[in-house]
Amino acid sequence: MVLVEQQTILSKDRLSIHLHDNVKKLESIYADCADIKFRYFLIGNESKAVLIYVDGMSNVEEIDNNLLTPLMRLELEKEPDIHALIENTLTVSNIKEIQTYDDVVSEVSSGNPIILIDHQSKGISAGIPKWEKRSLQEPTTETVVRGPRDGFIETLSTNIVLLRRKIRSPKLKIKSLQIGRYSQTQVVIMYIEGIADQTLIEEVQNRLNRIDIDGILESGYIEEFIKDHPYSPFPLMLDTERPDIAAASLLEGNVVILTDGTPFALIAPTTFYSLLQSPEDYYEGFIIGTLIRWLRYVFLLVALLLPSVYVAILTYHQEMIPTTLLISVAKSREQIPFPALVEALIMEVSFEALREAGIRLPKNIGSAVSIVGALVIGQAAVSAGLVSAPMVMAVAITGIASFLIPRYSASIVLRILRFPIMFLAGTLGLVGIMLALLTIIVHMCTLRSFGVPYLQPLAPIRNSELKDSIIRAPWWSFKKRPHWTDDYNKVRQPNGQQPSPLKGKE
Amino acid sequence: MLEQGKISPVQMALLMIPAIIATVLLLVPSITAKHAHHDLWLSPIWACGTGFFVVFLSYKLNKLFPEKTIIEYSEHALGKILGKLVGGIFLFFYFHATGIMVREYGEFVSGAALFHTPMAVIIGTMVLVCSFAVLGGLEVMGRASEIIVPVVILLYILLFILLIKDLEVKNLFPIMEKGIRPSLMGSIVPQSWYSEFILVSFLLPYVTNQKKGFKWGLIAVFIVLFLMVLTNIMALLLFGNLTSSLTYPVMVAARYISIADFLEHLESIVMAIWIAGTFIKITVFYYVLALGTAQWLKLSDYRPIVLPIGFLILLQGLWAARDLQELSHFLATSGAIYILSIQVVLPFILLLCASIRKKLGQRKGNKQNETPVNH
């Protein structure tokens, strides 16, 4: 504890006027840091100076051409003045003066080379960072047929640019902060002034400021720290790799949180329905958008309930199955030694295992696993008399249904909840399933995401927003913004934009 | 106030509708049919006056004592000791009523699906689920009702539509063969269900707009009336005079559905939607009981007593009656008088006392200040 305090006192100190002292202190701070380079040189053959940078994080070419060359060739008449150097000599656009050791450390670690000069109590930081980064690619987890193909990458500055290019208004505000005592990860909050609610922005900032952790490596860390209901399995923030989703949420008054080092942006607040929407709902026609939404809602229930309903009906409510079907189901189950619940559990667990294995394995082996899985789960298990064919079908349909949910974080919830419901179905039949559903509904009704009820606009009902949740109404009919609070920027677009032949006469 | 949340008038109506209708669907057709015979569909219409009257009573009482529930203002209206007594009577009544309700649920589920499951498990699981909602508070209940109730009502009406081809319209005639008396006699029992609308007086203080709350209370009575008439007509057109001898006519009706040899035996579906409706009903009563008890004992929060009360409800459910026959007999005979006297007569007396007190108080105030007090 004492050591930490000493360190902070040391680093808050201002730079010394003697280069010798500065170098000594910095060398002790950067002891055993092989990647930190100290380059000593003379300004105009006289004044001693040092250049400090991280190997591989700064643009060496620019250091050579725009920092070292002009400085070393400078003809000095008197003591070099920092201000004059910046104004006359250094041909770098992003440049600033620094005064404390703290500044030096933070600038160096963000890739900006530092120049310290003898007899000067200030230093110069040149903003020429450069490191290897991934090129823009289509996000593999959120693909669309029609829509932009760029995705966020691990570099924060690029991600901000991606959003700025979509929303060019100066009303798009960006607030930056650092989280993580060791990782010192840069996190930015983005919102559109005048659309996003002021209290929401403050709340997000407060919650982010409360985080005290050694390092942030993914936005998931942040999410768990600022979630409204920490024990709920439901995602209370939307995570996305797509700039278009982030931009759309900004326009609806949400706040986007970008984290350096991860392509996943967090969007708050979110509702359950936004987790069931794909960006393509908005890009293709509204009729297909609506129908696909309904398809998703139906398969949401299928993914959650199908194995349980199958178990419940086979165990308690056989009379519900039409006679001919009942006979064939009974025939296929004749050989099976397990009750329906055990059968369903075996299949579901092995399906989950297969799915997890498929994600972790290298891609070329992955296909082999899926073939083996299909054979083991499908063919062999049935012919070996371990599970019945209808059960295999039920599990397969459940699997497909869970892939229909466009957000991975939402489909995880369904996978988690499926198992307790199966147990309830095996013990209490349809009554158990109903009780489970009621519990889930009550739980979801208690949830709030940054103060917004999770099931809004259906519970509580907001009539004007129903047309973007139950259906996807045409774009020209979204006249009002969805509002999270009472006080908001209401009008999204003016009336009367519906295209019609009459418009030509205007 | 113990309840921080607020609900919208629509949410209140959506909470009230299943709070009345859920158990009606099971027992009322056969109970009314015993007196009204084939005029049973008229009985709910005669009975609905009680519903309107009770909603009106709650609204008037709420106007006199805004932001207070019936437990709190009975002390203001009747004085400390008498008020506490009346509050206690209400609470014991709701305790008993909730117990009966859970038992009805238990009897129904064990009779229709889970024949071998112990009653305590069936009731216990339901009470547990309800306690989650009650612990969530009124806002959560309101939101849950917005999700559940529309689905329940739509599925119920769908059931009716699927039955249309089996309905015999001539079972309706002759209307009022023996005059109006049988249907009036049959209306006494539905009245006891309508009288449950006094629950509005517990919810109104937490509704955002009381005037709209009153309006939506009346709309809720209308919807309940519609669903009750629909149920009774369905039972009558399907079974004729047989209705009175069936325990659960709606359940039997679901068995009649057979479309394309595929959509058949939907009684499990009926059971499922009915469970959802009953869930809201039990939750509302449970909540009123928990909140009322906390107010009666002047506790600072009602949440700590929710689970203990749930356990008592479970015991009360097991103890309420020996079997379904006894329960049904109680509801059809002395139960009606018992329920009506507490849910209609008692609030009415409260309103009378409160308004007399207020008049007296005003006159006193006038004499003292010589200026009229505006309220």
From TrEMBL, chain B:
Any Gene Ontology CC annotation: membrane
Heme in keyword set: no
InterPro entries: Spore_GerAB
Pfam families in the cross-refs: Spore_permease
KW Lyase (keyword) present: no
Signal peptide: none
Subcellular location: Membrane
Membrane topology annotation: Multi-pass membrane protein
Swiss-Prot/TrEMBL keywords: Germination, Membrane, Transmembrane, Transmembrane helix, Transport
Residue intervals passing through the bilayer: 12-31, 43-61, 81-102, 114-135, 147-164, 184-204, 216-239, 269-290, 302-321, 327-354
Any single GO BP term: spore germination
Family to which this protein belongs: Belongs to the amino acid-polyamine-organocation (APC) superfamily. Spore germination protein (SGP) (TC 2.A.3.9) family.
Alphabetical list of NCBIfam families matching this protein: 2A0309
Protein name: Endospore germination permease
Organism from which the protein derives: Neobacillus rhizophilus
Organismal lineage: Bacteria, Bacillati, Bacillota, Bacilli, Bacillales
